[in-house]
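Each record in this resource describes a single protein on a pair of labelled lines. The shape at a given residue is found from the number at the same position. The record below illustrates this layout:

***
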Amino acid sequence: MTFLIIALLLVVLFLSWKYMLQLEPAGVFAAMWVVLILSVLLMQYYIVLRFSGIVYITICVIIFLLGTIFCDFLYHPTSSSHSTLTFRKERVLPLLLILIACAMVTPLYSIVLHGFSLRALLDMREVLEMNKGISEDRYGGVEARNIITQIFLIFCYVAPFIGGFSFRWVSKFVKVICIITLIPGIFVAMTQSMKMGMISGFILWFTGFFVCSFSYHLPLRIKFRHVLFSILGITVFMGMLFFSMLLRTGEVSYGTISIIQEKFVSYALGQFHCFDMWYTTYEPSDFSWGTKTFMGISNVLGLEERSQGVYTEFYQIGKNGLYGLANIFTIFRSLIEDFGEAGTFLIMFLMGVLSKMSLKNLILINNIFTHQIITTAFYAYLLWSFATSFFTYTSYIAMFFVIYPLLCYLQKVNAT
């Protein structure tokens, strides 16, 4: 089965190489899954796998790429107005400062709501206690939030997107501020052990960077120094994730570091075991028709009930000395529950078509702000696909309603 998966990955690389070099949605989607699948194959001595789920995921990636290629060959839009786009870089700095301030409201206020003092941030021992206490509250179902934290949480995602979107247009000083937009998410991970907020911040920062680059025809070329910086950035990012998980235990010792090493593997690659086990044992039932994928909306409407962590099933993923629990099932579980296995193939093909259509219209400045939002949604959904649907959380969906007017504020369409 390993050889079959490797053969399928070679097909993925063949179909996606051009899109990878151009960092298009299809390219980053394919690259991410190639790296993850190769990683889990290398770790299969320690992770229980049945492989059929991995084969299914790989085929879904191939079908998405076929949809992109289909659109590439058959859809050739023309510019409807021959407009040009101007970036108002003088507006960036004050806007970023406001967004960063708004983004810090929720993490700081949440500390107070959990009964801790902000002075605890000055003492490492108290930070450890705070991390442990907030984690226990969250997984124990204790709600420590209100309308203020819910509203300002949106800015934890808006700020990094605008930071990434503005990065290529501003001075060196403002570039530093663009990078600082990642701080609120990092702060949450380090003080409250909410890793997905930090991961979302990085995803949205790079999404903004990509969307801006395509909007203004700025080159996205992968050079050797970019590879080095990427490796360094990934190493630092993984280090921060590891440290945030360590803080969550409430103590720093050799024993906890060993435990976190196993948990780190579970979080990084556990989705393959979880989806694999679920895929080989689930029994088809009535389709949910999108309510699982868009649980952020269906939860508000009362159509679905979202629990902490989205899924309540935990699987023990390890073998041969590795212990680890995980409940991450990728986007493919929600798609199968919504549309079935064959329906998921169709949805993946259509997403490949639509993402490429939106990108082409964005490049031609056709309904530019709308297509910037659509392309952003595709990037975010695809880069989050290793965990679950990006649209599971209401705050992520609400983010788009804030980003749209900000894109209008930062840009001007000039008719020619």
